[in-house]
Write a structure and sequence with these properties.
Layout (H helix, E strand, L loop, with lengths): L40 H4 L3 E5 L16 H15 L3 E5 L30 H8 L4 E2 L6 H8 L6 E3 L7 H4 L3 H8 L4 E4 L22 E3 L1 H15 L5 E5 L8 H7 L5 E4 L4 H7 L3 E2 L9 H14 L2 E3 L3 E5 L8 E5 L2 E2 L4 E5 L1 H11 L4 E5 L12 H15 L3 E4 L3 H8 L8 E2 L3 H8 L5 H4 L5
GO molecular function: ADP binding; ATP binding; phosphoglycerate kinase activity
Subunit structure: Monomer.
Enzyme class: transferase
Length: 442
């Protein structure tokens, strides 16, 4: 996916932690964690607070941030701590590669890797916080300890990429202890990494008390756990993306909860083929045909209205400049591949969504990176924005759906935009997140 333009609109949700949004709360342990908002100035003034944030943002060739969504999402928690005189130590990872080396996929830096340095994040973070954020050249060690000692009350220090140490992802106790030794208490506001038991997300909680959720973490849990456990009905889920295999858990979990399940993206062709339809050269997971059939049957037995597109936009090749045409979903010609949902599908999906009160969307309707095949995804984004304006709870559940909503400038219109791709998926699947479970209960 190409880098997105720098986003400048406010992130959806409470602009200030004094006014937290409270959707329906779940009684689950996942949703009842102690929040940083429970800590008063007396608990924080002069205290060293280790804050795990998610500053894993895309950079351009000149190492400028191209999408600051995650940086902005961290601001309410940091400002809350600054205003109460805490000395703030920020920790994050960065693995999204910049286009300087497109051959490197998002993954793990091998030791100290300059292109994965967090230094490029400092200017935008400083601008958003209104202070000069100090930057360390490491995340542990004597130099870091000196910088922390020099921090004034309300000061902010950003540590270098914690994944420069292999011990981070191994959740090595000694490494976690070294990180924890820098601070007096712990705040986890990195929802995007909460599904991983790493040293900076789970290990440090064994050595720092209290260990609490930041405002972003709390808001993610309120919506993704709370709203799903106790949604206003009718409750619809829109699930897209290229493969059934990546969304099996989400679909099976949602079929237990939703009234309507709308499917789009490349995964639909596996469902079509399972029903005996011609799919041309569209993407199909041959080993998932039986699964697709069983999901259709499960929806029927649960009384869930499962909707597949009735028409699709097909292309003669997978390219932005491909020849395209609209065909019925039940008969894709040989040599053509489906790359978007068609106008009839957009109309019927939009009409169905009119009756809903809660909508979760995870995964695009087509290959939205190509303008010609972004129509379906963008139409769904606009529909959700309209419905949100009329009181429907709209939750964008991470990943490419968020990128699509940002692309058309509608993020601020949605009830909640999740900052965590994998973490959102795992929560929607009903899994527990180790980075959340490790925090103190409310």
């Amino acid at each position: 996916m190409p880098p997105l333009p720098l986003v400048s609109q406010p992130l959806p949700g409470p602009p200030h932690p004094s006014f937290p949004s409270k959707p329906p709360a779940s009684r689950s342990r996942m949703a009842t964690k102690k929040s940083v908002g429970a800590l008063a100035e007396a608990d924080l003034k002069g205290k060293k607070v280790f804050v795990r944030v998610d500053l894993n943002v895309p950079l351009d060739e000149s190492l400028k941030v191209t999408d600051d969504t995650r940086i902005r999402a961290s601001v309410p928690t940091i400002k809350y701590l600054m205003e109460r005189g805490a000395r703030i130590i920020l920790a994050s990872h960065l693995v999204i590669p910049c286009p300087l080396d497109p051959s490197v996929s998002a993954g793990r830096p091998k030791g100290v890797t300059p292109k994965y340095s967090l230094k490029p994040v400092v200017p935008r973070l400083s601008e958003l916080l209104g202070v000069n954020v100090a930057m360390a050249n490491d995340c542990i060690g004597e130099e870091v300890e000196k910088l922390i000692s020099a921090l004034p009350d309300g000061g902010v220090l950003l540590l270098e990429n914690v994944r420069f140490y292999k011990e981070e992802e191994k959740n090595d106790p000694e490494f976690a202890k070294k990180l924890a030794s820098l601070a007096d208490l712990y705040v986890n506001d990195a929802f995007g990494t909460a599904h991983r038991a790493h040293a900076s997300t789970e290990g440090v909680t064994k050595y720092l008390k209290p260990s609490v959720a930041g405002f972003l973490m709390q808001k993610e849990l309120d919506y993704l756990v709370g709203a799903v456990a106790n949604p206003k009905k009718p409750f619809a889920a829109i699930v897209g993306g290229s493969k059934v295999s990546t969304k099996i858990g989400v679909m099976e979990s949602l079929l237990e909860k939703v009234d309507i399940l709308i499917l789009g993206g490349g995964m639909i062709f596996t469902f079509y083929k399972a029903q005996g339809h011609s799919v041309g050269s569209s993407l199909v997971e041959e080993d998932k045909l039986n699964l697709a059939t069983s999901l259709l049957e499960k929806a029927k037995s649960k009384g869930v209205s499962l909707l597949l597109p009735t028409d699709v936009v097909v292309a003669d090749k997978f390219a932005a400049d491909a020849e395209s045409k609209i065909v019925p979903a039940s008969g894709i010609p040989d040599g053509w591949m489906g790359l978007d949902i068609g106008p009839d599908s957009i109309k019927s999906f939009s009409g169905t969504l009119e009756s809903t009160k809660t909508i979760i969307w995870n995964g695009p309707m087509g290959v939205f990176e190509f303008e010609k095949f972004a129509v379906g995804t963008e139409a769904i984004a606009r529909k959700l924005a309209d419905l949100s304006g009329s009181g429907v709870t709209t939750i964008i559940g991470g990943g490419d759906s968020v990128a699509a909503v940002e692309k058309v400038g509608l993020a601020a219109k949605m009830s909640h935009i999740s900052t965590g791709g994998g973490a959102s998926l795992e929560l929607l699947e009903g899994k527990t997140l180790p980075g959340v479970l490790a925090l103190d209960d409310a």
